[in-house]
Design goal:
By secondary structure, the chain is an alpha/beta fold. It is 40% helix and 10% strand. β2 (120-123), α6 (128-138) and β3 (145-147) form a beta-alpha-beta unit. The N and C termini lie far apart (40 Å).
Length: 233
């Protein structure tokens, strides 16, 4: 499946400057950042290598090519990038097949955005095969568009995925609110010119211009997101 844009037929509420909401997946909507690390540890253990826990902050939130490439170089494992990508996706998919915990507040926020017909996109560095599995649990009706990391030439931290999502929804990036959990994702969203809500999952993220940091999605609702468009910060 490729990223597609069904006919929206929806508009934001009258008078609202918020045109769309763009959401990351792992660590933002689903509590799966730990799943990726667990899969990496398990795969490299089978290859005869032990991963240093400090590397977790290096690989979190990035594209598979960056994370896998770093781990191959750091360990010297005898495996190609293509082979490792398959092994990691298999390990992750096995884990989400057993359990897929949502982040606190995720289901409520998605339902609210859907009820108010806010154009919403899922923008992830994960591959399409993983996104399609996760979206089944999140509710495909909650997303007008999904962007996968293996479907863009440059994924996060480059702005391309968020620019593509905004264009697909017919929205101005400056009128989009992005919700992210990692510095890599935040960098991508800010480079695209979006307002960012950071909900740190693994490593701390500091507030900045057009960047609001909250401890949980439970602090985020539609009123909060609309308010970001009018704040002078």
């Amino acid at each position: 499946m490729t990223s597609t844009v069904p006919a929206l037929g929806t508009q934001t509420a009258e008078g609202s400057a918020l045109q769309a909401v763009l959401l990351d997946m792992d660590g933002t909507l689903v509590d799966t950042e730990g799943f990726w690390w667990d899969a990496e540890v398990e795969v490299f253990a089978r290859l005869g290598h032990t991963l240093d826990d400090s590397w977790r902050h290096v690989v979190v939130g990035g594209p598979m090519t960056r994370s896998a490439g770093f781990l191959i170089e750091a360990t010297g494992a005898d495996v190609t990038l293509a082979e490792l990508t398959v092994l990691l996706n298999d390990g992750f998919e096995d884990r989400i097949g057993r359990a897929l915990p949502l982040m606190p507040g995720a289901a409520r926020l998605l339902a609210e955005l859907s009820a108010h017909r806010i154009p919403t996109a899922l923008v992830s560095a994960s591959h399409r095969r993983i996104i399609d599995r996760v979206v089944t649990s999140l509710g495909p009706q909650n997303f007008a568009l999904t962007i996968a990391g293996d479907e863009v030439e440059r994924t996060k931290p480059f702005p391309d995925p968020y620019l593509l999502a905004a264009a697909g929804l017919g929205a101005d990036p400056a009128r989009c609110a992005v919700i992210e959990d990692t510095a890599t994702g935040v960098a991508a969203a800010e480079a695209a010119g979006c307002h960012v809500v950071a909900v740190p999952s693994v490593a701390p993220i500091s507030p900045a211009f057009r960047r609001t940091v909250v401890p949980s999605l439970e602090q985020v609702d539609l009123s909060f997101l609309r308010g970001l468009m009018t704040e002078k910060r």
